[in-house]
Amino acid sequence: MNNENKKAVVLLSGGLDSASCLAVAGRDGFSCHALSFNYGQRHGCELAAAKNVAKALGAKEHIVVSIDLRLWGGSALTADDIAVPEAGTASGIPATYVPARNTIFLSFATAWAETLGARDIFIGVNSLDYSGYPDCRPAFIEAFETCASLGTKACDEGWRFKIHAPLQKLRKDEIIRLGVSLGIDYSITHSCYDPDPSGLACGRCDSCSLRRQGFIQAGIADPTAYVKL
């Protein structure tokens, strides 16, 4: 990640997918500027994971932006009165969906990229093994790319932003195999929506379930520390 003329902003939650996305951006020769958010999420220990991932994967810099999405809640991740559901117990868009979260995150990423002189933004969304969030789908990513290009100086200067979603059409086991091939230590990542006070993954939420099944299907030992189930 030492090509200063090929800069990218990479959204980094500290989870398995975003770590894999950062590794792919580095593999592809980008100087990576990692961006995380302290948005009032109940699984705040993911921010410590993001810091460790950014350092381990050689990000050029890592910024954590604080915004308070608990002000209006609307999600099990930002409201104490909404429980995190166990995997497979809900239909439709799950309670863990945070309203417009990726729209907000990509807007910040676009602003930073414009300031850096970067034309590339990476996000670790997936639309195969995922929880069904509408802001993870290809149509949204394509639409935001157009929005970013029209609403910034890119429009007047005749260039476009590129929103990279390299994991978009990969299964979780494929993502894990890819990450392992790129040298990721997944033990430093955090995916759980409802960890215990010590940070142990619950093993029951949708994110834990997808992660566990991914390691099983990949035939790779899961390094995650779960509470005793």
Distance between the ends: 40 Å
Query: Would you tell me the overall average pLDDT?
Result: 94
User: Mind telling me which CATH architecture this is?
Assistant: 3-Layer(aba) Sandwich
Major sheet details = 5 strands, parallel
What is the 3D shape? globular
Structural class: alpha/beta
SSE layout and pairing:
Elements (H helix, E strand, L loop, with lengths): L6 E5 L4 H12 L3 E8 L7 H11 L4 E6 L34 H16 L3 E3 L15 H13 L3 H4 L4 E3 L7 H10 L24 H13 L11
Helix pairs in contact: 1-6, 6-7
Q: What does it look like?
A:
- The chain has 229 residues and is α/β, with parallel strands linked by helices.
- The protein has one domain: Rossmann fold (3-Layer(aba) Sandwich).
- The protein has seven helices and five strands; from the N terminus they run E-H-E-H-E-H-E-H-H-E-H-H.
- It has helices spanning 16-27, 46-56, 101-116, 138-150, 154-157, 172-181, 206-218, and strands at 7-11, 31-38, 61-66, 120-122, 162-164.
- The protein has a five-stranded parallel β-sheet with strand order 3-2-1-4-5, with helices on both faces.
- Strand 2, helix 2 (46-56) and strand 3 form a beta-alpha-beta unit.
- Helix 1 (16-27) packs across helix 6 (172-181) and helix 6 (172-181) crosses helix 7.
- It is globular and about 55 Å long.
- The mean pLDDT is 94.
